[in-house]
Amino acid sequence: MATPESAPLDLNISAINGFELPFPIPTPSWDHPFGFNLFQHFDFIVSKLTNSNFVPSKFEFVPGEYPLTTPIPVFALIALYYTLVFGGRAILRATNAKPLILNGPFQIHNAILTSVSFVLVVLMAEQLIPMIYHHGLFYAICDHGAWTQEMVTLYYLNYLVKFVEFIDTLFLVVKGKKLTFLHTYHHGATALLCYTQLIGLTSISWVPITLNLSVHVVMYFYYFLAARGIHVWWKEWVTRFQILQFILDLGFIYFATYQKVVHDYCPDLLPYCGNCAGTSLATISGCAIISSYLVLFIAFYIEVYTKKSKKAKVVKRVRGGVAAKVNEYVLLDKKTLQQNYDSNTGSPLPEPRRGNLRERSRKD
């Protein structure tokens, strides 16, 4: 007989005040945070949709058995991404091709990504909540036992989504938008990061992945609304969530890296909690890639907030948070600056003066 401490809490309510319900109402518990087994339903649906070619509950990350599980196709696809981005942009410039609108496909793209991100982060939460409740946070980020079959399946699906997100940049190219190094580098580096963590068996993978998926739910939904011409008051919060994600990522990853380095190389010299699961390659590559994001982010702030260039003055005046400032920074070219902004203050020039400057430039 189960004791009160070990008795399951996930009871289904079948009656309210004596009234029998036609079906039981799922009751959340620590073991089943949503009241029923979501992964089981996900497994059934995906198996049916793929005609049992991909069964989530039976998935194992075996190199060569599934797409993009070996180095050659991974590096080839990342190289193809950069080739299409930079080669496509060069061709469009050389041919003076008109930018494409593609508003409909862009909406569909963002709707799919926000939906997929939501499904994956909810499925991961279902696995993580009971794990952390029963074993603690350190276990969840560092123990080999946290590398479960369900989590690996979700890691792999998230990894595949990173390649779908390459389309983000391709949309910018065909729409004639300017690209930052951070944007183009980020997509390729993140796909590579996910691959190294999959082959490196790093239990901490869920931290950056769940944070990233949570941000992407909001971000791609915002992009979807923006593509439909819907303005929302919370667009600043998209960037705030991104910054918070970035800070938390670094905190957890540096903590785990410290644990592993001390355990492997100097356990008698420095204090530590225990070893963290994962290969040295995965640890080094993960820490390096995440740290590179920090370097690029700092470089942007130095460019905007410490330099006294005209471009920096203009960007500082932009409202709407860091995202708006980044976008404004990307869109400002030399000609735009000369024609539309005061060189001393960075303020927009009055409309009549803008017109005069445009006329002068046409005559020149």
> What is the subunit arrangement here?
single chain
Q: Tell me the total number of β-strands.
A: 2
Major pleated sheet? 2 strands, antiparallel
What level of helicity do the residues show? 55-70%
Order of helices and strands: EEHHHHHHHHHHHHHH
3D shape: globular
Q: Please identify the structural class as seen in this structure.
A: mainly alpha
Strand content: under 5%
Protein model, in words:
There is one protein chain. Strand 1 (13-16) and strand 2 (19-25) form a beta hairpin. The chain has helices at 38-49, 71-94, 103-135, 137-142, 149-164, 166-174, 181-200, 206-227, 235-265, 280-305, 310-316, 321-331, 334-340, 351-363; strands at 13-16, 19-25. The chain has a two-stranded antiparallel sheet with strand order 1-2. The chain is mostly helical. It folds into 2 domains: 71-307, no CATH class; 333-363, no CATH class. Helix content is 65%, strand content 3%.
